[in-house]
Amino acid sequence: MSLPPLVEPAAELTVDEVRRYSRHLIIPDVGMAGQKRLKNARVLCVGAGGLGSPALMYLAAAGVGTLGVIDFDVVDESNLQRQIIHGQSDVGRPKAESAAASIKEINPLVNVIIHNESLSNDNVMEIFSGYDLIVDGTDNFATRYMVNDAAVLLGKPYVWGSIYRFDGQASVFWAEHGPCYRCLYPEPPPPGMVPSCAEGGVLGVLCASVGSIQVTEAIKLLTGTGEPLVGRLMIYDALEMTYRQVKVRKDPECPLCGKNPTITELIDYDAFCGAVSDEAQQAAAGSTISVGELKDMQDKGENIFLIDVREPNEYEILSIPGATLIPKGEFLNGSALERLPQDKKIVLHCKSGVRSAEVLAIVKNAGFADAVHVGGGVLAWQKQIDPSLPTY
Amino acid sequence: MSTVVRIPTILRTYTGGAAEVPGEGATLREVLAKLDADYPGIGARILDESGKIRRFVNVYVGDEDVRFADGLDTATPTGSQISVIPAVAGG
Description:
Chain A is of the alpha/beta class. Chain A is 36% helix and 16% strand.
């Protein structure tokens, strides 16, 4: 299936532009017409992080006339392993501004629009309406469903990519011509079931592999070139170095783009995706202690059993003294419960307090009624109790 | 029938790190039951409490999403490749 170009060509290319884009212009499938379309194109990249970094840099170099960058976050040192649009001197700077500066350095002809804010139900429709195409580089399910829904409601193509450790997925969702994200994944996983990159890690260069697929697809859609990745899911496995694809069908029962849609406006995405599961929230209510309280308990020699529910690799980076490592998975499959002492108070912690809340629900269900978890996890311990420890 | 099951990264803790394991069964339901017998716990990550495929996990026989075929009753002929593809949101 080929599709007509998304964007009308600009009136002309200047002499400077012809010189800059000459390697595009001599490709017959792009040519002057294609490059003029790119010049006229308005592309928004949601997130200037792992996927947004290579996406924005290549979109800028390719000569996309207007590039929007939306990100509310600031550059952190732990971003630099993969977010190559930012550099060491950008640490602490808003990502949208840092990204805009890099784009200007790569290609001063690009008109960059900085949205230094968080994408929300209040602004997503207005912001999206100014663009022809949306590239998604966000890192959470709530934003992805919001981006999808807004794109469908506005009739915009949505170039989607997602990464985890060594695995990447990419597709183009465009309800007018094929399926949307909800056709592929009708519902998000319950919180805590699928780890984020902050919890599970990601190979830095994987961002380039998936981000470059996204830019390729964006350019093809803008210029009407080739076979777009509509109705197909590309699955990249870096460990095996394989690309496989599967069909993505438009779901006639899709609540958003199906025959009888029940979602006709934006919904509450935090509630849809759940920040923390209900069980975990209930378990944590009244059973959350601070790192200061944990330190007090340890100093007073209280009879506690401190359990770190993170993964071994995370434990190696830093851990709270006295903690026993029992990864969350062992609670999920039940094998951890027999290792818990009956005569000590169970204290759980993880990186930031989400996973330990999930485990707390399991432990309490198993009869350890006085178990607690540590709010803020090992990151709070590092910040408040022992800043000499490394962080991640 | 003898098949191959592709395991995504996040479920490889169950298969000792293996990305691909042999599968056995005439239908997807049988293949998944055998998979859970071989690798206890993995079934619950793919199927919910009522035995349906979880809504954020897609299972493909070949390149077809079984949601649009016969679901768990989808035939798994000898040599077919079964892929489990969970939603991930990293970026």
